[in-house]
C-alpha cells in the first residue's frame, strides 16, 4: 500500500498451552498510513491486542510469532535484534495500555518515568551534565503541558497514585509521546474511564495526532469511539480480520454479517421499544478451529459454501470483507 | 496472555488442575514419597523394626554399625549406650515425631482457621481481641515459650502437644484472617448475604473453601518446624520420657560419646534432617501448585 | 402505591480514628457516599440510575437492599419498612428483593458448582422439599436463562463471561423475587454478549413481572431500556424524570454534558462536545454549595455557596440547579 507507515502481512501468532495450540492471530494483514487514525474493533479473544503486541515484539511465552512480515517505515521489524527492537519501541512506535495504574511504575515519580524514555531514546539531548538534565526537565514539562496536565512543574514530582484515572491515562500518553513517535498504538485507552473523561482523552489523542502528524492505531471494543475518531476501521473476529474500510462505509453500510450484527445489537435510545437482535452464541474456542468461516456458527445467513475457507473480498474501492455473500457469486 | 487462562479444558476442577501441577514437579513428588515412606515406617514400626527398641543388651553397648569392625549386619546402624538397636529406635521414634507433628498441626490449624475467619469476617471487637492475642503470642520466642510451658506442666506426650499448639495456631490464624479480609469483599460473598445467608454459612461455606489452599501450604511447612521443635524439647530432656524412643532424646543420649561412638547421635540426627527436608521441599511444591502468590 | 419508596436515604462512611486522633479530639473524616436520596420505583417499571464511577450509584443500590446498612433514611418495599426489619424478617424479605452483580468473575464462588450456587436461595429459604426437587428447579431456571441442563454440575471457571452472568441471573431469580437491583450487569461484557444479556433481562422482566433498578454508567443502555432515569453526581440525584424527557430535554448541566460525551454510532460528529473542566472532585472533600459547580460552565456565585433543591421542571421531571429558570442549555450554546 502507498504511504503505509506500518504494514503487516499474513501475521500468525500462536500460543502453545496445555489445553492445545491457540492461533490468536491467524493471517492478519493490516496497514496504518501516515497521519491516519486506524480503529481496530473486536471483542475479547478477537486477537486485536495480540496483533499489536506482535508488532511491538511484546508477545510473551508461551506465545510466538509463527509467520508473517512486519514492515515499519521501510524496515522489517521481525529481522531486528532485540537491541535494535528496543530502540524502535518508545522512539518510533509507542504503546499505551488499558490500565494506567498497573502500567505506570508506582515507585517512580511521573517526572522520572518520562525522563527514563527521553534518556533511552532522545538523541537530540545534550550529551551529559546539567545541560542534559535541564533539557530533559524542559521536555518533560512540555509533554505534561501537551496532554493538558496543569501546573506541570509540581506534578512532575508526584507519583502515579496521586493522580486520578483520567490523569494517569494522560500521563501514560505523555510518556508514550515523549520521543515524538511516528506511530502510537493506543490499546483500549478509555475503557477504564468515565464517559466525560473518555471524551477528554480521545480528543487529546486526536489533537496531538494533528499537531505532531503521527499515526494512531486505536484498539477498542466501542464502535461509537471508532465512528467519532477514526479514519479507517478494521473489524476482527476470532483471530482474523473480517472487514476493513473507511469508517463511514463500514459503519454506514457494513458488509460482513458480524459487523452488521454488532451494529444492530448495540442498545441505544434510537431503538427504544424495539427488540434488539443480539448475535446468538459466543466466540468459538480458538483451539482446533475448522478451516471454515469463523463466524459460521453464529451467522444468520450461513450456507454450505461457508464451510470452505473464506478469503477477503473487495466490497468497494477500499472496503474489504471476509464473506462469500460479497460480489454476488455464492457458488 | 490471558488467552490461555480463559480456555480451560472441560471438566477440570481447580483442585485437579493444582494437583496436576504438583505431580508434574518431580523433585516435590520424590520428597512427598519420602515423607510417605516415613509415615509408613511409623505406622508399621512393629513389623519393620528388626528388634525391640527398648531391649537392652549390655554386651552390645556402643556396638558400631554393621560395616565397621566389630559391627554386626543384624544391627546395621549399631547400638547405643544401653545396647539398644539404633535402627529400631529410629523406626519407633518416627512414630513420636510424626504423631506430634500431625496432631499439633491439626489442632493448631483448626483453631487458627476458626479464629482467623472470625477475626477477618466479623471484624470489630472480635478482630481486635484475636489480633492482639496473636501479636502478644508472636512476641515470645517460640522455643523459650515452649520450654517455659513444659517446665510448668512437666514432661509428657500430651503436654508437648499442648505446649506447641498453644502458640502454633497464630500462624494459620494470621493467614486465614488476611485471606478472609480479601474474600469477604468479593461479590459472591455479598451475593450470599443478599440471598439471606447467615454469618456461619458465609464463613464456613462461602469463604472457608476459598482460603483453604494457603492454609494447607502453610500447615505442611509448619509441620517440619513442629517436628524440629519436638526434637529440640526432647533433646533438652523436656519431651517424651525414656525409655520411649524419640529422635531428639536419641541425639541427646549420644552427646557423651560423640568421639568414640559417633553413630549414636548421627543417625537419629540424619533422620530428622531427611524428614524435615523432604517435608519442606514437598510443601514448596504444594505452594507453587496451590498458591502461586506465595512463591517468591 | 409505589413498589419501592426511598426517603432521605444516606450512607456515610466514617474514616477510622486512631488513639491519637481520639485523644486530640480530631473529627471523623466522613465520606457522604450517598446523601439524602428520595426516589420511588413503580411496579413493573425500570428505573435507570446513571452516573460516573464514584458517584455512589452502587452504594445506593446496596443501601436499598441493606447490604450496606444505611446511615439514615427509610426504604419502604410494598408497604413494609425494610429499614426497620429485624434480622429474621429481613432474611424473609431478601427472597423478594434481589441483586445482579457487575463482575461475572467475582460474583460466583469458584469452589461451588452451578447447581450449588443457583440452588442456594432454595436451601436458605427452605423452598425445596428435597434434593431432587431442588435440582429440578435449578435446571428449570437455568434453562430459562439459556444454560444447558448438562452444564449445572460444572464449576464457574468452565463458563465464559456471558454464561457466568446468566448463572448470576438464575441465582437471583430462582426464589421468584419481585424487585431486582441490576448493578451494571452488562458493563464487563463484550458488545455482542451485552445485547444477549439485555434481551434476556427484558424478556425475564416481561415473563415474571419484575421491577428493576438498573444501575449503569452507559447512557445508551439506559436510554434503550429504562422507563425513568435518575442521574447521580457525588452522592446526590441531580436530575430525574421519564427517559424521553431526559434524553430530549436534559435540564441539568451535568446531564447535558454526560449526554454530549457519549460517542454514538448513529450520529457521528453531529453533537457538539461540552468540555467539562477537570475530574470528579474527591468525595472526601466535596465542594460546598452545588457539588457540580467546580466543573460547571454555567456556575455563578450562588452555586458556590448554596445547594440547589430539586425543582419540578415537567411532568414527573425534576432537576436541582440554580439556573433552571433561565432555561439555558449548554448544548445550544456550544452549537451556536
UniProtKB/TrEMBL annotation, chain A:
- Catalytic class of the enzyme: translocase
- The ABC transporter domain sits at 6-263
Q: What is its EC number?
A: 7.2.2.11
Main site of residence? membrane
**Sorted alphabetically, which CDD domains does this protein's record hold?**
ABC_NikE_OppD_transporters
The Swiss-Prot or TrEMBL record annotates one GO molecular function as: ATP binding
Q: What InterPro entries is this protein classified in?
A: AAA+_ATPase, ABC_Ni/Peptide_Import, ABC_transporter-like_ATP-bd, ABC_transporter-like_CS, Oligopep_ABC_C, P-loop_NTPase
Regarding the membrane, this protein is recorded as:
Peripheral membrane protein
Q: Where in the cell is it found?
A: Cell inner membrane
Ordered alphabetically, the record's keywords are: ATP-binding, Cell membrane, Ion transport, Membrane, Nucleotide-binding, Translocase, Transport
Catalysed reaction equations from the record:
Ni(2+)(out) + ATP + H2O = Ni(2+)(in) + ADP + phosphate + H(+)
Q: Does the keyword Ribonucleoprotein apply?
A: no
- Tell me the protein family, please: Belongs to the ABC transporter superfamily.
What is said about its interaction partners and assembly?
A: The complex is composed of two ATP-binding proteins (NikD and NikE), two transmembrane proteins (NikB and NikC) and a solute-binding protein (NikA).
Protein known as: Nickel import system ATP-binding protein NikD
From TrEMBL, chain B:
For this UniProt record, the keywords arranged alphabetically read as follows:
Cell membrane, Membrane, Peptide transport, Protein transport, Transmembrane, Transmembrane helix, Transport
Q: Which residues form a coiled coil?
A: none
Positions of transmembrane segments: 27-49, 96-122, 142-166, 211-241, 261-283
Instruction: State the annotated membrane topology for this chain.
Output: Multi-pass membrane protein
What's the domain of life for this entry? Bacteria
Record's PROSITE patterns? Answer: ABC_TM1
Q: Which family does it belong to?
A: Belongs to the binding-protein-dependent transport system permease family.
Record-given protein name: Peptide ABC transporter permease
UniProtKB/TrEMBL annotation, chain C:
Q: Please give one Gene Ontology molecular function term for this protein.
A: ATP binding
This protein's major location comes to membrane
Which keywords accompany this UniProt record?
ATP-binding, Nucleotide-binding, Transport
Topology versus the membrane, per the UniProt entry?
Peripheral membrane protein
InterPro entries linked? AAA+_ATPase (IPR003593), ABC_transp_ATP-bind (IPR050319), ABC_transporter-like_ATP-bd (IPR003439), ABC_transporter-like_CS (IPR017871), Oligopep_ABC_C (IPR013563), P-loop_NTPase (IPR027417)
The segment(s) forming the ABC transporter domain are 4-259
Q: Does the keyword Transport apply?
A: yes
Give the subcellular location: Cell inner membrane
Q: What family is this?
A: Belongs to the ABC transporter superfamily.
Protein name per UniProt: Peptide ABC transporter ATP-binding protein
Organism the protein comes from:
Thioclava marina
